[in-house]
Design goal:
This protein is an alpha/beta fold and 513 residues long. The protein contains 19 helices and 21 strands.
């Protein structure tokens, strides 16, 4: 225990307070000012705490605490894994184990709140944190809430006076475990392991292994959320990634309604793949799609969006004077666009019934490849169309070079052909997309590829070449494929045209259904 903390803890305190081991990963010197603040915070606590800094350089002189120097592997990003062996070696010496990166400020309030809620949890449940950042104006930003990560509506549960829910982004650059929880993780054989990555990169994997592969489930106490937010001191993602306090408040309100039985905890369909880094998952916060907006007919007065997330595209269309209705991914993410006046149809894929209203334009963006049965989704889509309706369907090109790489990785990982059951995604060419549409009674009006962003590395450069390539090659290299369809039987020439949508990707065996 550091000397400063010792002055605040009496002999009697030592006998009744849990002994806490804190491991802090700190590479190089760029975050030393944050590390010093974090250590001061722990030192001021009225708890029995030992701090160990894990680094590639000796920091004992600058921190005044124990420092273990060395990387678990050659990759410098493997440093966070060093806490695993430390915890395994000292598992019988402490009651509580805290891991964090050097810019995460955990307070005594956080720890005491964690201990309180843990007394109500099941053995496999672990209370977790969300990171918070502060802009120059003091506005809050929650960077962990972005991309395909979302609250699982079906996970909401009550424990004592607490309401908790699972957030699919388990990474908060920190975690807390009791001795018993650590023992469970160690017993799984998948905690003290060599550096690795899968759903997350190396650094994030080190902080999430207890949840992703050790049999523990992270639950965030949403009813006491202020006690379970930790300051990410760098504030580096403000304005770049995450959501604000108002949006989080809307989502929290729906989660509490689910807990009270006033809202159904459904999800439209599975949205996260089982690919590395969850590739091709549905982005709940995807930016407005200019390409899609441009395809909405000028004559349209009503639009239905199937699979609405945070609603950026839908709000743009609403601002144009269109009546916009949405079938959201789930009621939690729907809180944002619903609060902005977008009309909602709350239903999962199986409960979308007939005799609904029809719309001049129907959107289905980056969702079809995730549906267990794409034809079923398209049949539901078609039921919302009248004879003059146009539907705009966008799907990531899962048979692009990047998609084929994901396909091969998934095949190697599962040791079998990576169909939907193994990967959570259909690897489908433009031709397969066209056949899904035709088999669902839709008539193809146009199909084209959308290149990747300029900054998207080598894939972006390759994708940009598609703009000058012949049509077949263009579709194969594109980042996503957009097809516009109308209702009714396909014209004979469109059926014949299906033959032109030959497999656009490299020659690999594909199981798309």
């Amino acid at each position: 225990m550091n000397e400063h903390a010792a002055r605040h803890v009496t002999h009697q305190d030592r006998r009744r307070l849990p002994r806490v081991l804190v491991a802090i990963a700190s590479h190089g010197t760029s975050n030393d000012r944050y590390l010093e603040r974090v250590i001061r915070e722990y030192g001021a606590m009225s708890l029995v705490i030992d701090i160990v800094v894990l680094s590639n350089i000796d920091k004992r002189a600058t921190t005044g605490v124990e420092c273990i120097v060395g990387l678990p592997a050659r990759n410098p990003w493997s440093l966070p894994f060093a806490h695993k062996n430390l915890f395994a070696q000292r598992r019988d010496q402490y009651d509580l184990f805290i891991y964090s990166e050097d810019d995460i400020l955990i307070t005594e309030r956080n720890i005491r709140a964690w201990l309180e809620v843990t007394s109500f949890l099941s053995p496999d449940e672990v209370a977790g944190f969300l990171r918070v950042e502060f802009g120059e104006d003091g506005e809050r930003n929650y960077p962990d809430i972005h991309a395909h990560f979302h609250w699982d509506p079906s996970s909401v549960r009550r424990r004592g006076d607490y309401i908790l829910a699972h957030f699919t982004n388990e990474h908060a650059a920190c975690f807390v475990l009791t001795r018993e929880q650590l023992a469970k993780a160690l017993h799984s054989g998948r905690f003290d392991v060599a550096p690795h990555q899968g759903k997350y990169d190396l650094a994030c994997t080190a902080a999430t292994d207890p949840y992703t592969q050790c049999g523990l489930r992270k639950l965030v106490p949403i009813s006491h959320l202020e006690d379970f937010t930790v300051h990410h001191l760098t504030n580096r993602y403000v304005g770049r990634m995450g959501i604000g306090e108002e949006e989080l408040g809307r989502q929290k309100a729906i989660l509490l309604q689910i807990a009270a039985g006033r809202c159904s905890p459904y999800s439209l369909l599975p949205t996260e793949t089982r690919l590395r880094r969850a590739g091709f998952s549905k982005d709940y916060y995807e930016p407005e799609s200019e390409a899609t907006i441009a395809l909405v007919p000028a004559s349209a007065r009503s639009v239905l969006s199937i699979g609405c997330g945070s609603g950026k595209t839908e709000k743009r269309l609403q601002a144009r004077g269109l009546h916009v209705t949405a079938i959201p991914l789930d009621p939690v993410i729907a809180a944002g666009p619903a609060g902005d006046g977008i009309e909602m149809i709350y239903a999962d894929l199986d409960s979308i019934g007939p005799n609904r209203d029809t719309y001049d334009c129907v959107l289905c963006l980056n969702l079809l490849h995730l549906a267990p049965d794409p034809r079923k989704l398209l049949l539901r889509l078609r039921s919302f169309m009248h004879e003059r309706s146009i539907a705009v369907i966008q799907m990531p090109n899962t048979m692009s070079p990047r998609g084929v790489r994901s396909y091969l990785r998934a095949s190697l990982q599962s040791r079998r052909s990576s169909g939907y059951e193994a990967a959570g995604v259909h690897f489908a060419s433009a031709r397969k997309l066209a056949s899904w549409c035709v088999e669902s009674g839709l008539r193809i009006e146009a199909m084209f590829g959308v290149p990747a962003d300029h900054g998207d590395g080598l894939f972006g450069m390759t994708s940009r070449l598609s703009e000058r390539a012949p049509r077949l090659l263009s579709l194969g290299l594109s980042a996503s494929i957009i097809v516009t369809v109308s209702g009714g039987k396909p014209r004979d020439d469109r059926i014949a045209e299906l033959a032109s949508y030959e497999s656009d990707g490299p020659a690999v065996e594909v199981r798309s259904c």
